[in-house]
Amino acid sequence: MTSVAPKQEMTPATAALMARRVATIGPHSPLFYDTPLELVRGEGAWLTDAAGRRYLDGYNNVPHVGHANPVVAEAVSRQLRTINLHTRYLNHMVVDYSEALLETFEAGLDRLFLVNSGSEANELALRIARQHTGRSGILVSDFSYHGNTTSLAELTTGLAVHEEFGTHVRAVRIPDATGLDAQAEAALRDQALAEVDAAISSLQEAGHGLSASLFDLIFSTEGLLNVPAGYVEGLAQRVQAAGGLFIADEVQSGFGRLGSRMWGHQLYSITPDLVTLGKPMGNGHPVGAVVTTEALLDEFGGRNMYFNTFAGSPASCAAGLAVLGEMRDRALMDNALATGKFIADAMQQIAKNSPLIGAVRGQGLFFGYDIVRPGNAQEPDAAATKALIELMKDKGVLISRIGRDDNVLKMRPPMVIEHEQAQLLVDRLAEAVAEVTARQG
Amino acid sequence: MTSVAPKQEMTPATAALMARRVATIGPHSPLFYDTPLELVRGEGAWLTDAAGRRYLDGYNNVPHVGHANPVVAEAVSRQLRTINLHTRYLNHMVVDYSEALLETFEAGLDRLFLVNSGSEANELALRIARQHTGRSGILVSDFSYHGNTTSLAELTTGLAVHEEFGTHVRAVRIPDATGLDAQAEAALRDQALAEVDAAISSLQEAGHGLSASLFDLIFSTEGLLNVPAGYVEGLAQRVQAAGGLFIADEVQSGFGRLGSRMWGHQLYSITPDLVTLGKPMGNGHPVGAVVTTEALLDEFGGRNMYFNTFAGSPASCAAGLAVLGEMRDRALMDNALATGKFIADAMQQIAKNSPLIGAVRGQGLFFGYDIVRPGNAQEPDAAATKALIELMKDKGVLISRIGRDDNVLKMRPPMVIEHEQAQLLVDRLAEAVAEVTARQG
After folding, report:
1. Which of A60, A91, A123 sits opposite B149 (nearest CB)?
2. CA spacing 20 to 30 A to A312: which of A176, A389, B163, B437?
3. How many Cβ atoms are within 10 Å of B62's Cβ, its own excluded?
4. pTM over 0.95
5. How many Å lie between the alpha carbon of B294 and the closest alpha carbon of chain A?
6. How far apart, in whole angstroms, are the C-alpha atoms of residue B216 and residue B401?
7. Which helix (H) or strand (E) holds A42?
8. In chain A, which stretches have pLDDT less than 50?
9. Contact A91 B302 (CB under 8 A)
10. Rounded to an integer, what distance in angstroms lies between the CA atom of residue A123 and that of residue A151?
């Protein structure tokens, strides 16, 4: 997924920039592609590199309402020229934004803490859960990532961290029902929920108890898994029955990305206790949130002097309001549904013509392809996946990959992607799949 | 320091805003003043409230180069209209800013991690230290605050948190040499350093060992203490001799606030292993950093896939660069020295005329007054301190307070404060001190 040692030639200018980068933020800060891409300009779903070449962005969800969105830029700019202070003085912006954001949630989830990142949001959600329950145990998926603090490193299963996996954490395998009939799907669900039961019992027997579960409910880091019907409901029921708080991490699935729902957890018949937000929230402005109930906010607020210097400042809220405004004014959830369906249908067609492609995954404007050994839909092919990503870049389209076997092509364009751009994306994808298939064959 | 239940009448409009705020971010989010102040506009060191009344900002350090600074607003705005992406693609802004920032540090401190807040910076510094040492013990001051994550809550001594104080943390009392002669000062230093020795031994005996110390080296939360000569050097020597990493938290003391030095740790003959930055860094844009050595960056980077979605993005770096540019172009450290000396001299004069004032504290543009019972410089008077802050607000000047006894007046205006504004600040301060002194007498 990332490359720290560029393998191909760079232009002298890019090589010089790369050397200066290594001499400041170091050689380990991850970069995409064998030859890192120097991007200098964006507009909507387009990006332009230092050589003036244009790329279609099929990957980035942070620029949710489009690269260099002028409405967001103007809102932040206007606020920075007016006032931008912390929340120890009153200002209407934090209230205006909080109301607008909370309106998108179901009844009961009507309070929030504003923070500066998804990491800060998950960190705070876990503090709230530990304090509420008086217990420490946490349930996560066995291939996931929720942020870069110590508490979150201790429960990271989806990338390299030096910290030992927490003795107070249990990781469960998320079931994938792709291709199963109803009976097999139900059996898989029951088996996976039995694993959840065992994990909760194990935490209780070890004396940790269960404080919270923390899941991205579209299981994107795991590879955009198709969980069996009833699995998430069973998971939430078990967590809450054990007295734990159910945390829905919406950093990937939120803000209408799925088209059909504003929030990923709304795909299921569940009520999370805490919902954490990040990436697309400010179109790149650092902002995150924990949405919760009045009771949980009150309990935590009464026990802790919680303050966050930057969070809730008028400029952060202006960015957030502009994102919600653009989503509404440009009907971007409708676009996620319609353009998403167009891309998904085309992906199904492409898949039919290549033995390289196993499952087709995703919904709304979030797509995945399992890339497998021809003739064996169960055998992941990370090398072919990498080849596809590099080839797509050569063809002017940026995508990436996810999953425990590094073999799920990940496509997640800005929500403003237009029909012609979607057509370009699937045309280039068809070509790339054909070329890599021919190489393999 | 904060008030959650407004005690005085608000205008109907402000009361309505307050009610909406309580119904979204809740009643516990801290607010200054008996009657919360609704601020709607800023310019330089001026702030304007909803009724159109103007206040001199004698408190806020986040708007370092001035409220609504047009250079910062323009830099962020231009970048938001161009491109604003994470660091997995190359872009010159993260390199330009990192180089400019690292140039202000001494040799050896020549690498950095960019993050989104001071909390994220201290959180990361502790991760680096724990991994480097393989130990968990932490040394802090017994009245300090370094951020709002779980790891930082466990070592918080300066405000209310529900978490139990970490068994792996030792808190030492910071010595204040104010008013002592050289011999007494040396004795106090030796006694305080013996306490440090004991704390480190205690961590070692308990099996935690020492991973790091974490101090704000102007001891501002503690009340802007005047530590004995040689204390900080002795502290650093002991921490590093025990194999611990010495973390300098520059969230309060950094970015030229002290006038004489860019960084607070440069007041002493020490070399920190890690330096953490936050508040003033982006003039309110959420940005922070951990500055460290190549060896420590390499060790941590090699062991962990560390990535931070928002940090290092071009807009964050544009804000940071604009702050450094304004500091240079407007010679703001010179202003901190000159205007700071003017205020400090005036504060000494005012102190002579009031038995309410014990020590006069601070340097550069960071000032404190111990407010005490008349006739007893050792007996803190929190009520009189509060009265002074409210009275200063009535007179159109915003200040606050710090310290374990809530009795140290805290003045820390934006770095752009002008001579006439400084004159206004000390004139109003003289009036307020005289009035509260008369009330007490």
Report:
1. A123
2. B163
3. 20
4. yes
5. 8
6. 17
7. strand A39-43
8. 1-6
9. no
10. 7
